[in-house]
Design goal:
Blueprint (H helix, E strand, L loop, with lengths): L3 E8 L6 H16 L4 E5 L7 H13 L4 E6 L6 H9 L4 E5 L14 H14 L5 E5 L5 H14 L2 E5 L13 H8 L2 E5 L14 H7 L7 H20 L4 E4 L5 H5 L4 H9 L3 E3 L4 H11 L7 E9 L4 E6 L15 E3 L9 E5 L3 E11 L2 E11 L9 E7 L3 H10 L5 E6 L3 H11 L2 E3 L1
Parallel strand pairs: 1-2, 1-3, 3-4, 4-5, 6-7, 6-8, 8-9, 13-16, 15-18
Antiparallel strand pairs: 10-11, 10-17, 11-16, 12-13, 14-15, 14-17, 15-16
Helix pairs in contact: 2-3, 5-11, 5-13, 7-8, 8-10
């Protein structure tokens, strides 16, 4: 994944302790430069006058950054942030460092007031993609949000086939997708995906990961070959993510359904969403920017109201490295007339976040909920876990259904709610939580 590029400038005014601001900026720059996975673009000196802002804006904009950090070194002229934001078309973090001890009773920086000024100016100018932060270290949630935004805006995303039959709620507008997420969606035929290519997967390798006793030799070979073909196709087309119409005709075209192959590829970091769910696939892609471990695109499948828990299940596409390490891990053929070839296991327990990018009635929303994947006994085919969330299960289901949310959510291990809330803000998404 390409590194995120962040532009940084420090704003000041000579009526405050701008030399302290300059020292602080040098220290902050050293702190930021030590971080991995970010390309930093710094304006070297303090930005004090409108003329300084014009020069800094021109230089920083030329680098095409993914985000812009404006450090309020001291209180400053309102021109500065507006000029920089006008030139640099990226979300802004307005950052006030910690105020040093007063000198003779005088506030030395007044940087928080500077952030207040800039936020007010940006808001009243119609710019809503700014965030504010006070403290000695950079806002990690904002950096993660910018990574997610950059992952979408740089992505080459494909849709193979169409959405699954009857799943009208998964439909997207290509033009609206470009407007809201910066994503260009390319369309492919299902037949494009199944042309054989050599690769790392083999029938023998499958048997080392799964119990394949319920499969024929041909089904094992087809599963491995399909994983190789899909990996090659995505590489050849330079796709960062692919939404795949995996039924009803895929098994007729190829002889097996693609679920198990998708499980193999998800564990390798490839983002493939089932049932032609483009926005669900984009959610997987955004979450991949948070951590290397893959997310799981699941149905909210059952509610246990007395136990206040919900079943996150899908027919067998979860990455095999999300396995709980105890349940049987097998490949099954329980649907598509015995041609399913799906992964089957229980996912491990632990803190999780579920999320979904979803558009309805002209508004793009981000659904978000933190919870806990619970220890779960294997009683079903497919990949799944019972989970409990901050909202009671009945309320959670009401939130989903009353807002017309599509029936897939992406589950990622860990509590990422703070970063995802910031992501919603910088993307201009409405928040459902």
């Amino acid at each position: 994944m390409k590194r995120t590029a962040i532009a940084v400038a420090c704003l000041a005014r000579t009526t405050f302790d701008y030399e302290e601001a300059r020292l602080m900026y040098r220290q902050t720059r050293a702190q930021l430069e030590s971080r991995q996975m970010v390309d930093w673009i710094f304006w070297d000196d303090l930005v004090i006058s409108p003329e300084d802002a014009s020069r800094a804006a021109e230089a920083l904009a030329a680098a095409l950054p993914d985000g812009l950090i404006l450090i309020s070194g001291t209180f400053h002229l309102g021109h500065l942030a507006l000029a920089l934001r006008k030139a640099v078309a990226a979300p802004v973090l307005l950052w006030a460092p910690e105020e040093p001890p007063a000198n003779g009773g005088k506030i030395r920086l007044n940087s928080v007031c500077g952030v207040n000024l800039d936020a007010s100016n940006l808001y009243k100018a119609g710019a809503d993609d700014y965030c504010c932060h006070v403290g000695g270290a950079v806002d990690e949630d904002w950096l993660n949000a910018i990574r997610m935004r950059a992952a979408l805006r740089r992505a080459h995303v494909g849709l193979a086939g169409y959405r699954a039959d009857g799943f009208f709620n998964l439909s997207v507008s290509d033009a609206q997708l470009y407007e809201r997420c910066g994503v260009l969606l390319d369309h492919y035929e299902l037949s494009d995906l199944t042309r054989p290519f050599p690769g790392e997967f083999s029938a023998q390798g499958l048997s080392q990961l799964f119990d394949c006793g319920g499969l024929t030799k041909s089904q094992c070979e087809k599963t491995a070959a399909l994983a190789n073909a899909l990996a090659h196709f995505m590489g050849a087309q330079r796709l960062d993510a692919l939404a795949l119409r995996c039924w009803p005709e895929f098994a007729d075209i190829y002889g097996i359904a693609p679920c198990a192959a998708m499980s193999l590829l998800a564990a390798k970091g490839l983002c493939i969403g089932c049932e032609g769910d483009v926005e669900g696939t984009l959610t997987l892609l955004a979450l991949r920017a948070l951590q290397e471990e893959p997310a799981f695109l699941a149905d909210l499948s059952q509610l246990d109201l007395p136990g206040n828990r919900a079943l996150l299940w899908h027919c067998g596409v979860a990455a095999h490295n999300l396995w709980d390490g105890e349940s049987p891990r097998a490949l099954d053929t329980y649907f598509a007339g015995g041609r399913g070839v799906t992964a089957g296991f229980v996912l491990r327990p632990g803190p999780v976040t579920i999320a979904r990018i979803d558009t309805a009635r002209g508004v793009t929303r981000l659904f978000l909920q933190a919870g806990e994947a619970l220890p779960t006994k294997k009683e079903l085919t497919g990949t799944y876990t019972w989970a409990r969330f901050a909202r009671p299960a009945e309320e959670l289901f009401g939130l989903v259904t009353q807002n017309g949310l599509a029936h897939h959510v992406a589950m990622l291990y860990g509590d990422h709610t703070a970063a995802l809330k910031t992501f919603a803000r910088v993307m201009g998404f409405s928040l459902l939580e």
